Amino acid sequence: MSTDVSQNLVTVSIDGKEILAGKGELLIAAAEKAGVFIPRFCYHNRLPQVGMCRMCLVEVKGPRGFSLQPACYLPVADGMEVVTESEKVKKAQDGVLEYLLINHPLDCPVCDKGGECPLQDQTMAYGPGESRFAEEKRHWEKPIAISDLVLLDRERCIQCDRCTRFADVVAGDALIEFVGRGDHTEINVFPDRPFSSYFSGNTVQICPVGALTAVPYRFKARPWDLSQVESSCTTCSMGCRIMVQSSQNELTRYLGLDADSINHGWLCDKGRFGHEAINSSDRVTVPLVRKGDSFVETTWASALELIASKVPSSRSAGDPDRIGFILGSRLTNEDIYSWVKLAKGVIGSDSVDSQLGDGLKGEVIASLRRATINDAVSAKAILAFTGDIKEEIPVLFLRLREAVKSGWTKMATIGTHKSSLDKLSEVTASVSVDQLQLLARELMRESSRFPEITKLFENQGVGADGDGLVVLLGRENLAWDQSVVEAFALELSRALPKAKFLVTIRNANFAGSIDLGAVPRLLPGRLPLESASPMMRQKWAGLPDRAGRGVKEMLSAALQGELDVLFLVGSDPREDYVDSVLANSALDTVGFVVSVDTFLSQSSAKADLVLPASSFAEKSGTTTNLEGRVLTLNQKVAPKGLCRPDWAIACEIALELGGDLGFGSAAEVLDEIAEVSPLHWGLSWNRLERSAAIEGMMIPVSATSLSIRPRAMLDEISTPGIASVWDQGLASSKTTYVETSTNSEDDEPVGEPATQTVAGMVEPIWRLAPVQPLGFMNLAYSRKLYSQGEHLRNSAHLVHLVVEAKCRVSGKTAEKLGVSSGGSVLISDKAGGEGQFELEIDDSVPNGTVELVRGSFSIPGFSPVRSGETVNYVKVERA
Ligand code: SF4
Ligand code: SF4
Ligand code: FES
Fold first, then answer.
1. Which of 73, 390, 670, 789 satisfies CB 3.0 to 4.6 Å to 420 for a cystine?
2. From residue 530, how far is each of 94, 319, 534, 672, 753 by CA, in Å?
3. Is the pLDDT of residue 584 over 80?
4. For the domain 288-358+511-747, what is the CATH code?
């Protein structure tokens, strides 16, 4: 949000030294780049400037000589003369600091910011040393809880306006504000309106004092107790860059890192505070084998022997099609590759999948022209046909919101029910399944039957071939089968050959799963199964000779008694598969279920063997975000108990079966990925770590992107708590922001770069929507940020945020049902399963539709979505 920097350069003199700066750049930023640090409190490079604190006053020469001006508010101009160190500047800094400390409680020993506080540091560096203020300071009750996650100590606030600007301008949740006047001015929330924003933790991160503190971090550590590594959040597919901090082998805090292409320093609260689950004492830490109705602990050796006794080691020893693998979203690329190699390259089964009925077919995604996040935010126009981005990929919502509010792009949203994107959209259109085909074919034609959308896009300059259009493609309504969305995307892609698609599926590393062949019929590099290269055939000796099954087919095969062994690697189909009734009955019939997991989830609790897996921050590796950017994950703490990384578990199983995956480290797995997958050509651990790792590397890697770019400088005051841990923290495997060597000759890429990166165009297959049965209603089945799952259940400060199991209908529909708000209704699915829900009236839900939130309930025998139905309807009656 800082002032736009054009290519034109200007010359500025700072303390007598001439520097070149971008025309229009703010003086405070230009000076910093030239190595001159100007103290600041309110300035933040991602927020609009307000010039509130006056800490950045410097002398600037004007027509009447030098005068004090705020460097954070002043764009540089050619010939500008600036003095940052002078008697006058010092006196101004003394005055500002003395003033800020008049009412400051100076309770540093008991303040969470102590040791990493810009007010402490700048008082020491620039302050007068003593105060002339002898009167009683202002007092407030301290601290007060302004939300479940944030505490406010008003005495410590220096009224810098950072939290308010963030909440209003960036998040759009203007729930924290200045109230009162004069010396009664305080920061606070509105009465009866807590600071319940998905992004509240960002205000804690950017508050330059200890006025805003996070409940989960309160009194946990000082910078000198901590060490840190850079990593990427894997709670959703955005891949926000984070600093992971720990003390005494326990994770203490995540802070957002400013990656320009990704998260701009912001995190959502679910990602930020998710570290508590990793520390949980309820983790699975030893191998467990079923004995009757319970588990007994076993050794790794016995567990591996047991697997070997159930799994045929080759095609001649048994039918590999009777072995299935369902991979989950916590896996790194290295984990995925190792398990896919075990399945397809050693055991010979192509029945590997990573989509639990809530995503899209790998081949379809692979067929679409991929858009980056930056493509989307700078597109001429966006067409959104996706789940609610704020609920599913929250920081992407912030990026889109910024783009729309800044006028960089305009958006149209289509779907069945309201979402947070509606407020950002110029046009919102309700569509039926049968209208989608027309929409896809006619979108940019004169004859379009959706003239409002077509006109918007034409006005924005979108070409008749879709040039300039980015489609956000996800699962807008899980009551519609994924084939509906797939057919729409393929049809649109054919009609508009220059439109690009940003696939907005929430699950972390769904992109890595597809890129690395964790779907039937594909191999690493998105290559079709039958097009394995000779090198691949040599490394993957047991390659299947026929296509395998996806999750739905595996579950159906299980019911037919055709699945002997099922590996669940970080996946929990009993809870997460969209048709929970099918998943539960199918899993009950599989002969032998091995679950590789971090918790006893619904699925692992009923498995025959549970293998304890290392969690996030307990292993290193890479992940691929939704736009195809490969990002590093660094280990910070030792794995709990006997936990092992998933890739290593795959290696152990392969050895037990007489195969050898050939890896001794995650870096070696990545090397092989780069060798066999044309899509990953050029990637290496060294290059990712040494290069502008904060941004990761987009795949396919182009020859030019192999060159190493310098890292951006860190503004220590924009995110207090990172530089202080470097300076004072424990020795750690910290990565640095200093410019690194550009010598990349020691890891020259092997293999061949991508020439073909997609698996070929897939034909759209349209299925007609079934006629709505009499007495049944439309179902809007969506997701919320805080829906159930092991991650939330084991995060002490997030668990109580889990969304309540309610159904929502409009007032008119409620009237028809004869139920008032708070009353009970019985919802029946098409197969006769029933669930009772409290009714809530919400007029944003269309009449005749009932809205249910996936992950807010778990009712045996009831699943509002049944596998195989193009559109799911439900019956709603007064209970
Ligand atoms: S609470 Fe913190 S961020 Fe907000 S105005 Fe006060 S000092 Fe600034
Ligand atoms: S948006 Fe996603 S990746 Fe970013 S912090 Fe939230 S959960 Fe993590
Ligand atoms: S007025 Fe410039 S940093 Fe606050």
1. 390
2. 73, 19, 11, 20, 19
3. yes
4. 3.40.50.740
